[in-house]
Every structure is written in structure tokens, then in C-alpha cells.
Amino acid sequence: MKEYKMRKLDVYEVLDIINSILHSRADEDKQKKEPITLLTKEQIETDFSELNIDSITFISIVVSLENEYELEIPDEYLLMTEMNSINKIHQVLKEVTENICTDEDATT
Amino acid sequence: MDINLDKIEKYISNNLHSSISEVLYQHKCYDLVIRLTNSSYYEKAYIRYLKNKSRVACYFKECQPILSQNEIPYVIVKGTILSQIAYTEPYIRNSNDIDILVAPNNTTAFNRLLKDNGFVQGTICNGEITPVSREKRVYQTFYSHQLLPFIKKTEIASCPLINIDVNTNIFWGESTYKVNMEDLLSNRTNISVEGIEVYKLDPISEFVVLCLHHFKDMNSIYLLSQGSLKLRLFIDIYRYIQSQHTVLPINELLKKCERWNALPYVYYCLYQTTYLFPSRILNRYSNALKNSSGDYLLNKLGLADNERKEWQTPLEERLFASDFLPNFYKMLNDDDIKKINLNIKMMQ
């Protein structure tokens, strides 16, 4: 599983997952009249504060990515400065999966 | 009594139907209540003091394996340490937990240490430790720089539950400032509590961290809605300066505040404390740290520029008026209310 997930762990895959979360949150919150704005490849480096993503949506994104890649991001990475863009989230996920694989290799 | 309570007593006698001992008790100033003669709240305050003494002894004994280790740098802030330093006795300030600072890159190791010693992360509900959803845990870590509380059950009646709060930054979640935590922790010193050697910050760092924490309690919209504005905050600052000024050189304090971008907030705390409790020593510090950013904050609330508002009442009224909350809520907009409700949902 993890080998498969690691092959897929590119930043555009992360972008797709984030957009699917934004889409499903828009579906859940039908009281909001504003249309959903999906993120684009050009916004990979943009700070989330400039992308109109509120804190609850951001948390949903982080937890959904954890579920998708079947990992738990350690507390030391859960800093706004480390995860405030799509690219930074991707970097954190990569580092965490690399650490997991290193630990698994060490124990086998 | 050494602390000048004239301003407080005058306001209370002119505006409230409560006695000064009742107000001091409500504001958790138990040491002052105990010192007042003929205080109707003396017994309640003294019982709290005795319970606190027993609880603190239990906390430190149970946490000794964690606090005595040297592999993961940490310091204890506030609580018992503040009580020992500022009030010369570790049991004066009520303490319901141990607040610890660690560097962010050590949180995983520190988590493991706590879990190996019987602590679990969760919240307390009806006296039981309740697990918390991943969303709440992530939210708390991101937005408060504090990990979800670590709790341990004991069989000891005086402390059935031990709570450790682990913090990874000295600023609040809304702040964009970051202090190098390894640098901060490199100046730690030893102190003995209940016969156990533990670590604390050097006096200057300790005072800055105290002011930052208390500034947050005095200005966070969420915390204010939960009743965080208490006289005790100002008494902590008063007591710390009065007891530690010989080891708090003003020029060193100023340099550290500037280095950490903490100057406006430390000045704010000093100014407001001097306003309530006039003192020559505090005045010297307040004047030396005076700056325009701090002056700007004096009649404001909020922790970030986009939520800053102006208070409509003087400090004494904010502290003691019985209608503080309804008037406070009148100042808030929809975004503020949304933030309060979100924090209540995710942090409680």
C-alpha cells in the first residue's frame, strides 16, 4: 500500500485531493451562496490565507490527506508556517512517508 | 500589605456591592484574601491553598521521571514555578496542571516520554479521560501552539487526574512571530520543587514569556469571552518585578524584548500593572520599555490586526463590572462570534 501511495505522492495528486475536499464541503454547506473556487496548479505555492480557505476547511484538508495516505502527521509538523500552501503540505507528506518507510526498513 | 490596593478598593467601594475580599477571591488572588484581616473569604482561600499544596506535591512526585530527564530539553512555565519565584512559595497560586515548553522538533519524543509514563492525550469529561477526534487535536496544535492536553489518572485522592500542557511556541496561534525554541531552552536553569530538580527559564526569558501569556489572556477575544480577564494576571506581573528586579537588568530585558518582537506586549503588561498598582520599581521598567506600538495597544483588544478593537471603558471597569460580558459581546462582529464558537467547539 505505502509503495503505491508513495508513487502517487506528487503535488498535483495532493492538489486533486484538496479540490475534492473543497467540492464536498461546498456540497455539505449548501447555505453558502458563494460558488466554490477550486484551486489551480498556479496556486501551488500560494499561502492558504490568500485562498479564502477557512480554518475548519484547512483542518479537513489535513485530516483527509492523512486518511488518504494512511498516516498521521506528527505534531512537530503541525505548524502553520510548515503547511500553509499546497506545496508545503506535499513536502510534509513526503517527509513523513519517507520517515515511515525508513522506520519500516529498519525493523524488517 | 505591600501591594497598593487603593485604586482597586476605591473602585470596588464606589461601584460594587461586593466586599474587597469577595472580589479578590473571584479574581483568584487567594494570597491577598488570606492576608486581609476579618475577611469573610479567608477560610475558603485557605482551604484552596491547602488543597493546592497537596495537589502540587502529588503532581511533581508523579511526574518526576519526566521532569528529571535530561535528554529532551524542556522548561516549566507559570503555575508552581511562577508561584515560587514571584510569590516566594510554590503553593500560593492555584495550579491545576503543569505547563511545559519544548521545541517543536522534540514534540514527538516528548509525547513518547509522556505516554511511556502513563499519560494519554484527551479531555476530561465527568472525571474521566475522553479521547478526542483527530480534527480537534490537529486544530488545537495548529491554532494554539499547544498540544492536546496529556492526562494521567492516579489513585491519589488529592490529585485523581494530572494534567500536563505542552507548548511549542511562546506566542499565540494568531501571531506570525516565531522564537527559536532551541535557543530559548538553551538558557534554562535548575530549580528545586518538592525536592525534585526541574528546569525553568532564566529570569529575563521567564518574565517575557509570562507577559506574552498574560497579554494573550487580557486580549484574546475567545479567552475574554471565557472570563480570562482577572486581577491575578496583573498581580503576577507586579509580584515578579518586585521580587526579581535585582536579576532583571532593564537594558537586558529591553534587548530580549526587541529580539523576540515582544516589546509592545511586555510594555503593555508593565504599563497596565503600574496603572493598577503604582510602584516606583514598576514605573522604571514601564518607562524604559515605552514604545509607540505598545502605546497603540493600551486601549485595544484582539491578538491580530484584523480583529483589533477599542475598549470603551477603563481597565478597572473591564476587570470588575458585573456586566462585562454583555458589553464585551456588543463590541464583536459576526467573524468574532464565529471564531469564539469555533474555538468552543474545537478546544473544549
Please describe the topology of this protein.
The complex is a heterodimer of chains A (108) and B (348).
Chain A: H1 2-8, H2 11-28, H3 55-68, H4 86-107
Chain B: H1 6-15, H2 20-26, H3 30-35, H4 42-62, H5 64-67, E1 75-77, H6 79-86, E2 98-101, H7 107-116, E3 120-121, E4 123-125, E5 128-130, H8 134-144, E6 150-153, E7 161-167, H9 181-185, E8 189-193, E9 196-200, H10 203-219, H11 221-225, H12 231-244, H13 250-259, H14 263-276, H15 280-288, H16 292-297, E10 300-301, E11 309-310, H17 315-320, H18 324-330, H19 334-347
Parallel strand pairs in B: 2-7
Antiparallel strand pairs in B: 1-2, 3-6, 4-5, 6-7, 8-9, 10-11
Helix pairs in contact in B: 6-12, 10-12, 10-14, 12-14, 14-15
Assembly type:
heterodimer
End-to-end separation of chain B in angstroms reads 38 Å
CATH topology of chain A: Non-ribosomal Peptide Synthetase Peptidyl Carrier Protein, Chain A
Helix content of chain A: 55-70%
State the fourth-level CATH superfamily of chain A.
ACP-like
Succession of helices and strands of chain A: HHHH
The stretches of 5 or more residues of chain B where confidence is low (pLDDT under 50) are none
Question: How much of the residues of chain B is beta strand, in percent?
Answer: 5-15%
Helix count of chain A?
A: 4
**Distance linking N and C termini of chain A:** 16 Å
How many β strands of chain B by DSSP? 11
CATH class category name of chain A: Mainly Alpha
How does this structure look, described?
Chain A has a single domain, classed as Non-ribosomal Peptide Synthetase Peptidyl Carrier Protein, Chain A (Orthogonal Bundle), CATH 1.10.1200. The model of chain A has no long low-confidence stretch (mean pLDDT about 80). Chain A is built from four helices and no strands. The longest helix of chain A has 22 residues. Chain A is elongated. Chain A is mainly alpha-helical and about 110 residues long. Chain B is α+β, with helices and mostly antiparallel strands and about 350 residues long. Chain B folds into two domains: about 160 residues, no CATH class; about 140 residues, Beta Polymerase, domain 2, CATH 3.30.460. Chain B is about 55% helix and about 10% strand. In chain B, the strands form four sheets. Chain B has a five-stranded mixed β-sheet, sandwiched between helices. Chain B has a two-stranded antiparallel ribbon with strand order 4-5. In chain B, strands 8-9 form a two-stranded antiparallel ribbon. In chain B, strand 4 and strand 5 form a beta hairpin. In chain B, helix 14 packs antiparallel against helix 15. Chain B is globular. The mean pLDDT of chain B is about 95. Chains A and B meet through helix 3 of A and helix 7 and helix 8 of B.
